[in-house]
Amino acid sequence: MKYQCKTCNFHWEGTSQTFDEVRDHEKTHLKNKTTVRCKVCNASKSMIDVEHNSDEKWECQNCGNILDMQGLISS
Ligand SMILES: [Zn+2]
Ligand SMILES: [Zn+2]
Fold first, then answer.
1. Tens-digit pLDDT string for the chain (75 aa)
2. Which of 46, 47, 49, 42 is nearest to 65 (CA)?
3. Which DSSP string do the residues of 28-49 spell out, in sequence order?
4. Which ligand has its closest atom nearest to the C-alpha of 22?
């Protein structure tokens, strides 16, 4: 199996057992991927397809607080 990334010059050649390398590589090109950081315990979480200024909520896996995209506790 061969793979040539459309976005950069990454090449991969191997078997389906190592195809995870390609999937991991493709993740590096995902758009709208952002990392939010919990202001309470400083844990970070990768969010995909979320606008940083949206009012979406997320739960910190570390301290369990419900936080907004700025990492502040959501009321
Ligand atoms: Zn690439
Ligand atoms: Zn936290």
1. 999 998 899 999 999 999 999 999 988 887 666 788 999 999 999 876 666 567 788 999 999 999 998 899 987
2. 42
3. TT-TT-EEEE-TTT--EEEESS
4. 1
- C-alpha 38 – ligand 2 centre gap (Å): 5
Question: For the chain, which residues make up each domain, given as ranges?
Answer: 1-30, 34-67
Look up residue 26 and give its amino acid. Answer: E
Q: What is the token pair recorded at 4?
A: 């040539």
Ligand 1 centroid vs 12 CA: distance in angstroms? Answer: 10
Please give the distance, rounded to the nearest whole angstrom, from the Cα atom of residue 15 to the centre of ligand 1.
19
* Residue 60 structure tokens: 């910190």
Q: Which listed ligand is nearest to 10 at the C-alpha? A: 1
pTM of the model: 0.52
